[in-house]
Amino acid sequence: MIDAPSAPAPATRWPAWRRNLWVLWIANFLTSVGLMALLPFFAPFVRQLGETDPRRCELWAGIIVGAGPFMAAVLSGFWGAVGDRVGRKRMVIRALCAITIFVGAMALARAPWQLLVLRIWQGAFSGYVAPTLTLVSVLAPLDRQGRVGGSLQTSVLAGAVMGPWLSSLVEPAIGYGGIAFVCALLSALSAAIVAAFVVEPPRAAPVVPARRGVTRMFTDATRELGRALRRPGIGGLLVALLLVRTASASVNPTLVTHVETLLGGISVEAHRIASWVFSAQPLATLVFLPVFGRLADRRGSRIVLLTCVLCGALATLAQAFTHSAWTLGAWRLVAGGFLAGVLPASVAATAHGGSADRRGGELGLTFSALTFGLAFGPWIGSAIDAYFGYPNLLLASAALLFVAFVILWRPRSVASSPQAAAGSVAPPAA
């Protein structure tokens, strides 16, 4: 009784892509709340497991936080291409179930190395944002791609705002192991919601039964990823996205300990203030992300990316010279507001000029770049903080953003938007 995605007028009030958008928004929000109640606090989690050396706590936190995204980045493009062939809905459920199993097992961890092993396995099989975005993107009109990417990302950001706040409330009672168990429950609920309510769009080309072997599937997926990499405008964008995400992720694993230092020591009140300082950047991103999504569709991806990266670099640079937790939080608000435009603009740039049946692989490459940044950032950031201090870490983060701006400034570094290409292809009507 659900109209086919290609059906005309009767389905226009509630098209399949819009239904999927709302269902996946709820699922992503629940999962993000659970994850972000835990991920910013691995340094105190390691301390709770018995590690007393502050420098070792910071290094462990960076390694653990970065291990999951690294494995996810290695396999993100492959999972996206596999999803193009066997179904995106299955990929979403697979990712959510992996979070349920491996993050839930962190509640039983008794040593930092056990957290590391579980994060590696979680990263190898999770990575839920890219397949959810693909599931909506392939049915959405081309001139809505930036807005779709922005709207869906707000679910993750809303969870990033609520997660640390939830952690500050319940951690004194249940500890970080209990928070890991809560995260697993929320992910399991999200998987059930996706399984029950998401509409799977038809694929453009049916899968040939003889090609369903694992080895052949891997070969075909790798070949499709190679075609996507050769598309004009993809290479420079991927490098810039890697640098942007590395810069923004490098400051996160040890931010809580830095705020504790600014406030004079470890306490419940310091933990609560650190939670709000951490949430400042995703809160601003949540507010401004839909705005930049619309701008990317109307004004073009490249101008949005250039503006956001440059202003984000300046706001990050200012944080290096602050000595107050509240001032640090204020500058994180500014940085988050501008860096909000990076994801929707990059999604729009990736979608323009590509075919819908290969979009999973192309978006998978985009998210691979972003996810590699999530891996390299914590590793680099925790090392710089441990040996040179947090202000120098912020200076390094700003420098990476300036380099990304220079790369994006180069001609043809970003694919054209529908408006930029309006002389040749008119975007479909809204």
Structure write-up:
The chain is mainly alpha-helical and 430 residues long. It has one domain (14-196, 223-409): MFS general substrate transporter like domains (Growth Hormone, Chain: A, Up-down Bundle), CATH 1.20.1250. Helix content is 75%, strand content 0%. The protein is built from 16 helices and no strands. The chain has helices spanning 16-36, 42-48, 54-86, 88-105, 112-125, 129-137, 145-197, 214-229, 234-250, 255-263, 268-299, 301-319, 325-339, 342-351, 359-388, 390-409. The longest helix has 53 residues, at 145-197. The two termini are 24 Å apart. Mean pLDDT is 80; it is low at 1-12, 206-212 and 418-430.
List the helices and strands and how they pair.
Layout: H1 16-36, H2 42-48, H3 54-86, H4 88-105, H5 112-125, H6 129-137, H7 145-197, H8 214-229, H9 234-250, H10 255-263, H11 268-299, H12 301-319, H13 325-339, H14 342-351, H15 359-388, H16 390-409
Helix pairs in contact: 1-6, 1-7, 2-3, 3-4, 3-5, 3-8, 3-15, 4-5, 4-6, 4-7, 6-7, 6-15, 7-11, 7-14, 9-14, 9-15, 9-16, 10-11, 11-12, 11-13, 11-14, 12-13, 12-14, 12-16, 14-15, 15-16
